[in-house]
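for ur thesis appendix - PX domain-containing protein. copy paste whatever u need, i formatted it the way the template wanted (i think)
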Amino acid sequence: MESDPSSETEENYNNLIESDFSYVNIDKLNSSKNSRENVTISLGTPTVNNGSLRNFVTYPISGSDSTGNIQTSRRYKDFKALRDILSRQWPGCYMPQIPPKQMTGNLGKDFIDKRKVLLEAFLMKIAKIPYIYHSEIVQQFVRGPQEFHKCVGHYGRLPFQKLAPLYKEVFSEFTSFVSNSESHKEMEDAQKHFSGCLAQLQVFEGWCKYTTDYFEYYQKEVQNLFIDLKSVNQVYAEEKNINLETRNLTTNPYSVLLGWVRTEILDLEGLNEAIQGRFMLEAIKLKIADRIDEERENLIKIQSGKKNFVQILLQKNKEQYIEKTSREITNLEEELKCVEKIVNIVTGTLLNGVIPKFKEGKQHMYEIVLKTFTSSSIKELEFLIAQNKQIERDILN
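the 3d part is after this line
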């Protein structure tokens, strides 16, 4: 009986995806009481729905956690809204990535199935990060209203005064880390390294796509060739029973590489985003420090009797403006302390937690992928050899 190579490939690929979570499991990076909770979550068969202007795809979500069962459905725009909010609320933290938006060809079965695998991987990775999974926005996503993307407007970026204690609680192991010039250089090196890796993988993806498509074409053409050869065989081998079995389609080994590289690209984009977020926070820290210096200079001028344009415009007396400027300096200093603490924690978490675990997990994943690829390639060659040996035996008999 002829096997279904597409379903076999998908099963192999899903098994690879499920094993690729070691770098997002943060049990050792925080002491969350929920860090060992068993969360199961998966996507069912996507459905193409008729819309008023254009058709759209919904992805059924099911699973369970300590709260109870999960049963809902989401569109791609819902996944994107969730990812955007999480990225804003957790600057400098690794956040699993989703596949990019595609304006055309996004209703084809092949595209939908591949997107489903990547969206499911996103949810499964989110479920492995307790402080993310148990956040209000994620719980709204898995249990909230049907049109999730329409009710997320009030989930904005958290002020640094609230973000600092939150980071201290979640990443308690790294609260004593102090960022310095050496760690800054390490972060620059990491950014350069992973950006280079991403560029290489993007080129490799093109070759994987080409080879995957070419192998599919090759398999079907060889199958057609043997079908026609059986007809020829009836004419030229009347006296010999030469067995010309039609070749079954086998698992495409190159699709394993293609699925892997697409997942790797998304994961590297997520890590690069976290590293860039760290540099963004450091830039904000420097900007706040500059503002403090400016306000202190203004305060000195006011105390010496000089009036600036703002003071004249607001018609405030000297005492009022001194009070206002002093209060502004105090607020900025408090904000600066919070941002400094966040930068320190994020730097420590990335350098001593996320990046080492990311490298370790990816190396293990790479070995699994190569074993799966070589195994599929060997099976294809073994089938070809067995088929040709059978023909040789039939001819010699």
